[in-house]
């Protein structure tokens, strides 16, 4: 019984650890208190988040408390804390005093640097981020939502602080449930100078008087030694239902561009598919029938083409161990991506579920270690490797180690900047436990099963003496074929990549997982096809060193991804702090490495299957 209870408790804490916020609606009764939580201050310009209370904002009377909910949030650098705003369902307020603060010289400098770096305040109410509404005249006066609002503004060398907030909430009610659900949360930041007068009946001992003529009296930080923080609250009924309350936030990215991106990827795929179909159906079929009809010896002596290298085509490549490790890890990444996409399509990872995406990617990468270990073991057996322990250990440690090392180094830099984006050492430890406690054993388990199975049968025997490779024309040189090969998979994804980059670096929401799934599907097919086509051309010109090249042919698209990130950096971001530059390129190189493993192993596995099939269908004596 005790054990059962223990299990239940452990299960409950696990569920809490991977809890996703915003799954179920909350109903508030009339006058019920509604919590306003504050998240990190973010800046597109520095990419270094800071805790809300690093600036002299009003601390809640009961003290500051954290309410971070899951691993994904911590890894994303979220720092969610409580606040002193007193909100009650359906109770309007005007010019409510939050607190008064003295504005010291240090505070002034802190505010100034953060206003210069375009820092935004991020608030959360009922799991919805505060949005600032603005009208886009180019879109016919349609309103758009911006995520968060600026700390203050800088104009003609003067710094104005946003010290008065107009919070407007939308609520919805229906006879299906009791109470009210929050369906909208907008903030309009203002900079004003309020008067205060003592009021013994208020808990703060005074009250504020906000003037209506706003522009005459901006809160200029150079002219005042005290900041008065105030807020207005309005509650208005809305027809919007709870399930669609995220729609306004997600309007931010255009839908048409995604259709264009799909169309573009489809064209690339169709073009390639046509080419591969032509190879497979016409040339290859002709080759195979010709090879099999050749009866006499002198006819066989005049053979040309890929059949000639049948005695070498499965010759062990150089650095075979590294190749199987790369493919194993690539399969791990592939598994992670596919299952994450599936979860996303089922709606588990929408932006309403803070931290969910990152967290599930971490966990899935860990669990996919089984497939990584299995794949690398089976391939290593093909290469008749005798050092399976090293190969397995490398699969478990090599690429994850590189990624962890980069991540750890970047984290040190973030930490040195005292940013909340730094992952605390306890979380770092948790990541290490996931890696060494779960992922490494799973890789070994997978590789154990992989070795127990019979080796993959190869259709032709390898000769003792390697064949001479004839001189290759310039367009068959490895660098050239890889450079050409990588363009197509990259071309299939680059428009969607733009949106992913905006969500990573510009704090926009990414939610079109349906499009992403289509694009990933097209990417998989494109990688397979380009590698098969290039492998075929290579074998036709009697060059049998295809193992690595089939990996590189599609994997080289990662180089283009990295180049794209350089372009994005110079055209879209105004980052000038060197730590932030370092962060950007550090994370982009991790992303490119993952993309390299993913696309490379798809190309490799497809080519391997292709080569086995074509050499299995000819007669070799
Ligand atoms: C609160 O303000 C909103 C917007 O001005 C208004 O529609 C609503 O009727 C007000 N509610 C109350 C209880 O006064």
From TrEMBL:
The chain crosses the membrane at residues 257-281, 322-350, 356-375, 396-416, 428-451, 479-505, 511-534, 546-569, 581-611. Keywords: Membrane, Signal, Transmembrane, Transmembrane helix. The keyword Signal applies. It is found in: Membrane. One of its GO terms (biological process) is protein localization to membrane. InterPro entries: EMP70. It is a multi-pass membrane protein. Residues 1-17 form the signal peptide. Coiled coil: none annotated. GO terms for cellular component: cytoplasm; membrane. It holds the Pfam family EMP70. Belongs to the nonaspanin (TM9SF) (TC 9.A.2) family. This is Transmembrane 9 superfamily member. The lineage of its organism: Eukaryota, Sar, Alveolata, Dinophyceae, Suessiales.
